[in-house]
Design brief:
Pfam family, one (chains A, B): CoA_binding
CATH topology of the largest domain in chain A: Rossmann fold
Shape of chain A: globular
Order of helices and strands of chain A: EHEHHEHEHEEEHEHEHEHHE
Function (chains A, B): Modulates transcription in response to changes in cellular NADH/NAD(+) redox state.
Radius of gyration of chain A: 21 Å
CATH superfamily of the largest domain in chain A: NAD(P)-binding Rossmann-like Domain
Largest interface: A-B, 68 and 68 residues
Keywords (chains A, B): Cytoplasm, DNA-binding, NAD, Repressor, Transcription, Transcription regulation
Family (chains A, B): Belongs to the transcriptional regulatory Rex family.
Oligomer: homodimer
Helix content of chain A: 40-55%
Protein name (chains A, B): Redox-sensing transcriptional repressor Rex
Structural class of chain A: alpha/beta
Largest sheet of chain A: 7 strands, mixed
Chain lengths: 219, 219
């Protein structure tokens, strides 16, 4: 990318990728920015703006070639990178999240799963044994994972993230409420705060129609 | 709320609530906007602006009373509303998500769990039996749930959401990739797109330091 780019544009790329995959799977080869916009609930000019951030992918008057655009956006998202990843916490959430990582072209490759619950140690999740967290440090030294997925409560997170950052982890998919980015501004963090999401829905669900009309989508 | 309010402010409220709960649990009774800002990685003026959207909670020179502010924000978020909720999909993700709803003061009350997998039907999750989706329609007619949590893939979502909306569901916590809001603009939808989140992290993880410096946090 040549120019400065906003994080919102980046966060929209996976959605384009999903829509294009769907179009491709339905045998659609060419689409105009107008039609893509209608299907995605965006405007054609927003789509053109977003794609221009990465050099633009269309051809005047032709529209977009769907399989080509799909491949290009996939490359930008580094879906084939296979970044070495460990999962910490093998409860229901950890198992659900692992299945997302195992999805073809997630960009990540799960190499180790850890849990402090001894009853789970030794179980196999999609071919990978669950190890006790006691082995985490040595595993990281031996295997040099780059990304850690955090599916445990916030309690022991300070010590854990300190250790993981020291061992070379430089990106986190964080499902805990611990603020990793504040403790370690040097690493990349993508947070999924399920409780925050649920509370936002609680606010909206319990608001009256008149109150909802006062909510603007402006940031 | 009196004036127009942006969705971003609303989305920050759960985070304030979490931080205040933590302060309260640590016995902190009073906090200045400056100190709260530092702990949360925000600016004091942003905090004052956010709270002013709801009438303002502070007292000049005193700061905020932590337990009071916690209670007030909880009321705004309707954490005690106990909105009748059904969960569709009782796999790992569904079970993980159910535990969030069962959390004290989530704003929601889980009244039914459904899955089309007959092997799961009859199992009990935190006191609630998993019913086959064949019973979904009658259950909704009898129990009038307001919110549905969607933890199934996108495949059958069109028919399912059409039915749920017809049966009176007016708010969705949506973990599928199906765009409920586009199909049913009349309902409230809070999406959690795990794959999109993971792909955003993939992009960031595979970007060089120079590329990361070009990403602005502006929307």
């Amino acid at each position: 990318m040549a120019q400065e780019i906003s994080i919102s544009v980046i966060k929209r790329l996976p959605r384009y990728y999903r829509f294009l995959e769907n179009l491709k799977d339905n045998g659609i080869v060419r689409i105009s920015s107008k039609e893509l916009a209608e299907r995605m609930g965006l405007t054609a000019s927003q789509i053109r703006h977003d794609f221009n951030c990465f050099g633009g992918f269309g051809q005047q008057g032709y529209g977009y070639n769907v399989p080509e655009l799909y491949t290009k956006i996939g490359k930008i998202l580094c879906v084939d990178a296979g970044v070495k990843t460990i999962l910490i916490g093998a409860g229901n959430l950890g198992k659900a999240v692992a299945s997302k990582i195992f999805t073809r072209q997630s960009g990540f490759k799960l190499v180790g799963i850890f849990d402090k619950n001894e009853a789970i140690s030794g179980k196999i999740i999609q071919g990978i044994p669950v190890r006790h967290t006691n082995y985490l440090e040595n595993f990281c030294i031996d295997n040099q994972p780059v990304c850690a997925v955090i599916c445990i409560p916030s309690n022991d997170m300070k010590e854990l993230t300190d250790m993981l950052c020291r061992l070379g982890i430089r990106s986190f998919w964080n499902f805990s409420n611990f603020d990793i980015a504040m403790a370690h501004p040097e690493v990349l963090v993508e947070n999924v705060h399920l409780t925050d999401s649920l509370m936002t829905l609680s606010f909206l669900t319990s608001s009256s129609k008149e109150e909802l009309e006062k909510i603007s989508s402006a940031e």
